[in-house]
Amino acid sequence: MGRITVVGLGPGDPSLVTAGTLAAIDRVPEAARFVRTERHPSAHLVAGATTFDHHYEAADTFDEVYARIVDDLIAAAGDHDEVLYAVPGSPRVLERTVDLLVAAADEGRVAVEVLAGLSFTDLAWVRLGVDPYEEGVRLIDGHRFEVAAAGERGPLLVAHCHNKRVLSDLKLAVDPFPETPVVVLQRLGLPDESVVTVEWAELDRSFEPDHLTSVYIPELAEPVAGEVAAFVQLVAKLRAECPWDAEQTHRTLTRHLLEETYEVLEALAAVGEGGPDTHPGAYEHLEEELGDLLFQIVFHTTLATEAGFFGLGDVARGVHDKLVHRHPHVFGVVEVDGADDVVANWEQIKKAEKGRASVFDGMPADLPALLYALKVAKKAATFEVIPDPDDQTLGGQLLALVAAARTADGDIDPETELRAAAARLRARAQAVEAQPPG
Fold it and tell me: For the chain, which residues make up each domain, given as ranges?
């Protein structure tokens, strides 16, 4: 197994590159030197290095770029005793490729050594006159601002603000705009260094950003993604000050959760396929019902928070990570041939996650019969097992209908279809009922 030595090229000026980094560059032959990008004032110090700039031009997302860089580096490590990988700034400050390399090392795919380097943040604190630890400054990647800064009011130092699209996304993620100006820091430590204050409304049009641009936000009037944060605070306040809310438990809320779920289902039925002819009122009603259901979810989460177990952020993070893990065809290297392969992979991944002997383990025994039959049919289909065609009992025929609905064009939901048919029968019966006697 080869070794990858990761070094940082500092915030910009070559004089800020450490002696350890220079020694590592000298030690590794030019054929085994790589830089993430040539667009850095100190990149020339890594003479003869191969750059990964071509991946930025060919890939659709930064995640794809980073994955390709890591794959190339691991492959190169197999051809050399030592590979040098140089990145802008410090290797451990907002450097996603290094995070992925370290993860690969933990998996035994490659050996990785990371050398310390000077970060642009070290210069930023000096220019801003800020002690980041005393002030509690959070460092945020500009490409993930809306997610990474959720619930924050500042102060924030936002890096990777290299173009106006990032700045525009940054500006529009905050509502209302803060009254306090932000500080734009560019090319710190270089002769053309710039540190200026900018009003929030002018953030994406008052200066020309580049790859050495960051933004310092002293404070925000409202937290990023404030609607969600405010809703969580509202439910907590209701628990503390409303007698009815204060009395509720997970058990007493069960019927409300069920009722709100059915009301969402009813609203979804009104929306139907959601085509251009859908009445706007149907969506307005769905929005309202989804809000009522969200209230139940946040309420249960609040009870868990009070008990010291988890909060809404933990719930969101957990389902986020679970979905990533269960979609290796999207976030990994697994290839699928249609939705059936996705379902089969999902079931096997879930089985492994839960440590279950069977994909049928963990199915709630008290599910309604129709839903239970549909789940069994879906799981059985992953093994290419179908209902027995010779079973002509009433139950066997019903199960065959459920399986047929699952494989029909559009994956028909038998619950929805049966409910719609029952509604039509009810309407016909009511029409007869309304007729005068005789």
Answer: 3-118, 122-217, 226-311, 328-424
**How are beta strands 111-114 and 3-8 bridged, if at all?**
parallel
For domain 226-311, say whether CATH 1.10.287.180 is its number. Answer: no
pLDDT of 315 reads 87
Backbone angles phi, psi at 51, to 5 degrees: -100, 155
- The pLDDT of residue 76 is 95
Q: Taking the CA atoms of the chain, what radius of gyration do you get in angstroms?
A: 29
Q: How confident is the model at residue 190, as a pLDDT?
A: 93
Sign of CA dihedral 165, 167, 173, 176: negative
Which amino acid is residue 318, in one-letter code?
G
Chain length of the chain: 438
Is domain 3-118 annotated with CATH 1.10.10.60? no
CA gap 174, 232 in Å, rounded: 18
pLDDT reported for residue 409: 65
What's the CA gap between 269 and 228, in Å, rounded? 27
Give the residue ranges of the chain where pLDDT is below 70. Answer: 226, 333, 346-347, 350-351, 354-355, 362, 409-411, 438
Supply the pLDDT for residue 299.
96
- Name, in order, each residue with C-beta under 8 angstroms of 131's C-beta and a sequence gap of 6 or more: 125
**Beta carbons of 142 and 158 less than 8 angstroms apart:** yes
Which option is the CATH number for 122-217: 3.20.20.80, 3.90.76.10, 3.30.950.10, 3.40.630.30? 3.30.950.10
Range list of β-strands (E), 165-308: 182-186, 194-198, 213-217
What per-residue confidence (pLDDT) applies to 91? 95
Residues 6+ apart with CB under 8 A from 215: 142, 157, 158, 161, 167, 170, 182, 183, 184, 185, 203
* Contact predicate 203/167, CB 8 Å: yes
What local confidence, expressed as pLDDT, does residue 266 receive? 87
Q: What is the pLDDT of residue 344?
A: 72
* Long-range contacts, stretch 374-382, CB < 8 angstroms, 24+ apart: 374/402, 374/405, 374/406, 374/413, 374/414, 374/415, 377/402, 377/403, 377/406, 378/343, 378/406, 379/347, 381/340, 381/343, 381/406, 381/407, 382/340, 382/343, 382/344, 382/347, 382/348
CB 215 within 8 A of CB 185: yes
Sheet strands (E) in 148-201:
156-159, 182-186, 194-198
User: Would you state the pLDDT for residue 408?
Assistant: 74
Give the global pTM.
0.61
Q: Tell me if 182 sits within 8 A of 142, measured CB to CB.
A: no
